[in-house]
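Worked Example 4.2. Read the sequence first, then its structure tokens.
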Amino acid sequence: MNVLAVISQQLTRFTALVIILAAAVTFIEPATFSWVKGDAQVVVLGIIMLAMGMTLGKEDYQILAKRPFDICIGTLAQFTIMPLIAIAISKLLNLSPGLTLGLVLVGSCPGGVSSNIMSYLARGDVAFSVGMTTFSTILAPVVTPLWMVYLVGQTVEMDGWGMFRFMLLVTLVPVAIGSILNIMFQNKSWFESVRNVMPGIAVLAFACIVGGVAAVFGAQLFESALIAVAAIAIHNFLGYVLGYLSGTLVGANTAKKRTLAIEVGVQNAGLATGLSTKFFPTSAESAVVAAVATIWHSVSGSVLANLFTWWDRRNGIEANLAKDNSETAKIAKSLEKDLIS
């Protein structure tokens, strides 16, 4: 099991590379991931969310109770900045309906568990990051369909109620199961071994989702890649900037501002990819945007975290900003298990 944990750590460390490799393999042999559709895709998405749920314990829900203002402000910033920027960029760049659909879908999704790791690496407020991810995931089955109906529902056939039901199935249910298992068995050595392997399994599941998109929309991926990358890059960059500024507006400390930048800028693009192929199967471009965003967010978030730590070293800041409070220290210690020393 220790070997599997090490493999899991490596997969987590090189998430972007694994996803790119999956896409490359699919272009060479499309049948490799052609099975990732329908019910199989639902199961793969459920595995990703189960892995996230297994990182949530009693301490995380205590954070929600102890820091409601911080987390509500952060989640509000995430669920307003990213969807509205997405539709603005779409209009500014005159994107096609399919690209607009994909960009808005990415912007309307909650944060992913990878943002927690990035916040830790950036010396952000990790407890705050976990709280935001948890709360945004809980709200997503309601908020994401509402934003989609409001922003693109008039131009795209949109089943908001169906998306709500689907997101309950693939987000809240597996997250709840994983969290309950974590609370019940977190002190068991066998469960810790399983939990240490889950990040790597989640990365492989992400790769399967992207590979499935590439298998179905391989030709369109090349046709739309350039403009999709440009739109995603602008969207992601503005999310980082406005997330950081939103922290400044509410008087947050440096650690919280860094966390807000990452939590707002980095979305659960893997979920967006699954939603796109499930609810907009004829829109190749929307799936392309979500798949490309999965890679882009992983790379840019890691780069931003490294830039923050480089800035600290350059300015002689030795204090670990991620440990400003006891809740953060506890979460940071648990996250260290998923990182390469």
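Now turn to a second chain, presented in exactly the same format:
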Amino acid sequence: MKNKINFTPFSIGILSFIAICFILVAVFVIAPFFNTTSNQKQTTLETLSQNNQVSQEPTKEGNLTNEEMIQKNIDFIKNNLETLAKENNITKKTDNFQEQNANVTKELPTLDKSQMQTLCQRSKPQLAIIIDDVANKGQLDRVLGLPFKVTPSLFPRSEASKNTPYIAKNAPFYMVHLPLEAKSFYQKEHKWLFVGDSREKIKERIQEIKRDFPNLTYLNNHTGSKFTEDWNSMQYLLEALQEEQIIFVDSKTTGKSVTSQYYKDKPETNPCLQRPFLQRDVFLDNELEEEKIAIALKNAIKIAKQKGYAIAIGHPHSITIKTLKNMQGVLEKSGVEMVYVNELITKYDTISKK
């Protein structure tokens, strides 16, 4: 006959105590361990967003004209590499990123002239401001924090901007800022296209960018005073962009850009655009002084009123963002509508001339 185990009240109490200890260990020791990684990532991102302030003096390329002063930012990436490196290590690209973001730009509808005139109407002049050189979340947040529509133009994925395909998802509308060969300097942190690159290489680069930014429909050039003057190079680039249904916005870093010549006899790809491409009218922050940035912005407003629209380009410098915020009242009273680049209407001027 087997012996029976008799549980006394004391032994039952001991067993209950041990069970409670195991539960407490599971709740307060083991469970938090599994959440450490995700919580740490979120905390780090928030800290970087708060601390990643931009303070940058312009770097001039010899005796460049105002048309070429967009190429002043040679130190921009270098001054922020440490912060960018920390941020870039936080978010790793997943294997199914492209599948999760497989929205493809649809072809524009075919419309007759009367339908286009109905579709392409603006009641007042339009001004689109582009902020170039956006490389990280902190810069994008400051652009999106402006009290009116501003288009961020993000660097493609590279050593200096590994996370831009991810942060682009936070923008209601964005462009990509493609580094093209300049005449006098080179930033090794970027991935460049050069004069002499083959048609295949340029096409593959644009396809790579489109995979990273599936919703991309507009792109402008970072530097490019040499590249945009070369007929063959621009032909390869603009053909590749057209295949991916991406409209080119010429930053006009040189007055000798061949973009206009290339598109001279090409049909428009957007029913509301007079030509199949756009180009910059004003640089806002060639000189990093609030008064001069304000003057440049007023000039952009004047141009918009003269021809119905205007495109101004600035950079995510602290003084530029501050000046734009301070100019909110001027913009609201100007009679000009602030729009994203993809909202520009250039084909039909429906504004009554007075």
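Notes for the reader: The first helix runs from residue 9 to 51. Residues 55 and 318 are 6 Å apart (CA to CA).
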